[in-house]
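Bit of a strange request maybe. I'm writing a small parser for structure token strings and I need a real example to test against, not something I typed by hand. Could someone generate the tokens for this chain?
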Amino acid sequence: MSPKRVTLLIVGVLLLAFLLAACQDAGEPEEVTRIVEVTRVVEGAGEAEVVEVTRIVEVPGEVPVAGGGDAVSSLPIVEQWASSPHADAEAEAFVHWNEEDPAEVPPSCAKCHSTPGYIDFLGGDGTEAGVVDNPAPIGSVVSCEACHNEAAIAHDTVTFPSGMTIANLTDEARCMECHQGRASKAQVDAAITELAADDVDAVNEELGFVNIHYYAAAATQYGTLVQGGYEYDGKSYDGRFAHVEPYDTCIDCHDPHTLEVQFDECTACHQGLESAEDLVNIRTLASLVDYDGDGNMEEGVFYEIETLQQMLYATMQAYATQVIGTGILYDSHSHPYFFNDTDGSGVAEEGEISGDNRFASWTPRLLKAAYNYQVSLKDPGRYAHGGKYIIQLLYDAIEDLNSAISEPVVDLSAARRIDHGHFAGSEEAFRHWDADGAVPGTCSKCHSADGLPTFIAEGVTVTEEISNGLECTTCHTSLETFERFPLEGVEFPSGAVLAFEEADANLCLNCHQGRAFGGSVDRAVGELADDEQPEQPLRFVNVHYFAAGATLFGSEAHGLYQYEGQDYVGRFEHVGAFDTCIECHDAHALEARIEFCAACHEPVEQTGDLRSIRWTDDEDDLFDYDGDGDMQEGINGEIQTMAEAVYEGLLDYTANTVGVPIVYNPASHPYFFIDANANGRADEGDTEAYNAFTPRSLRAAYNFQYVQKDPGAFAHNARYVIQVLYDTLVDLGVDVSGMTRPETPAAPGG
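Reply from user aminoacidic:
Good idea to test on real output. This should exercise your parser:
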């Protein structure tokens, strides 16, 4: 076959930064035109075929370069762009409308499939910004002029199909306008609602497939902030995936002209990579769960997603067959992608992939799942752009379909949709401020990626950007040596400055200390003298979550409410090699390092077994702390029984002494509510915050909540916790005659 020659004339505008640099010490450029010829040879386009593509790029203005020379001919970016998909004049993305009548790119497509359309959308041609007013002529690609013009340079806000807007962007905004998809959860819900499809499993012949379109990388990266995927009601999802600085935007990771991943930059952190193809094997220490449940936690996140895709497709086929009665097939290269499986084989046979055989038996449930399946496939870089968001979409789609299938073909019991706490970007700890747009200084130290480093460096907390969990730089001073921030001491809410002997082990104490201490209750009570009938209403004092550090340091941190006249144990010292947070817990997975526990505590085979541990097996040294007659149960059982007794005592006290019954709901702030029907259970109607606290009930409620919010209290400092619970019961007037209060050891040398 003879070489094929394609000539493309494009008017380009040079980069502003280049112009400024090039014109130093030079006069005004002459108004002439330089013609740069770029030749690309593509081998293997067909059998024994070589295609030579020559592009002639017309660039206005011969710009002198400082020091002499021809600026245009020295620009490698022209050749780089000419070899990119953005310049491929024969690609379907640019020739799709050539045979239409009229032969033009319609306004609905022109923004991303032509340079005039993109400039029109930006308002660079004098028309209204944000819409494409006119069709674009065929024969256009995405040229230099599309991105290098005043309107594009000023563009910093992108609105996604969901209607959600991301503002204060830099140059990546130009990429995000076209790499955002054309649909979202909003369009899927609208299609279902418009047809009044209330029965999620009823076929509606008017319901059609909703397609996100291609390469929606920005929608993947921004996750729930733009809702590019179908997010199921009642579920929470990851937000924007933040990589590391300075590789955190489209043009940080991709060459803006060739569009290829800047692979050499990846190898600085990701070892063992030989080519860009190896990027699919990356898995970081923030991915320590088995998402697809196949038992392989060494594979790259790409393969976790791939298996989940296969699982979802199998589930869609099972649902279509069992619930709808019509088999379904998918072909990623053939619009409209989904087709009838006419012979029920489960695989595409000759004649089944055609427009005449399109799948038309959609139910709302299947449409949601199919949309997510397509979302996961049409972003080839999904694993790098926002893999965990995609994992959640796939997992939830499988779970939803399984709920309607009598015999599910996919078992999710071993699969996982979210990460461990510090990296669980979908959870309330990191998503709480999405509607506000930032994490306030009162919360940012522990609920943003940058808050703790700022606090360590400056000693203050400030408003921070919302993050998708913690990042490596939250705890590590270097991403090469991975040293942690060293801290000589950490101040607790009580004002006490406490520390482990190892400076870098103190990092955890900054956030796992609570936001209140026992003295906070006394401050709230103030000068009120009457424990039963306060002169003014008291508000609940909440310690906040996972105050493990305060528990561990006991009376030194004064985390629990300590009753006057009583002695309390201080720091719980385990054994030498396992005496700090990061010695007992995996610093990334956060789980207890069970393999080390088993060396001394038998039988301990899994995390749940830790709750069965007692301090000693010596029968002469056993005490029935909770008075239930069981001295073989784990120390956690002793604590739980005593905590339940505190709660029962609180119910009795508020109902019979105060006259306003209380009820506790651990999942709803502010946790304590008026028990409207006085049944002792948190019911749907119990929504009014409790407003009749007395000093006595406030002390009890604080201590009860504290124990609930440190689920590892039995291991962190059980003696301290049992002492406080015992004293709380005494204060409430509960009979403790069968219980035992642990003794406080005498100080060394005392």
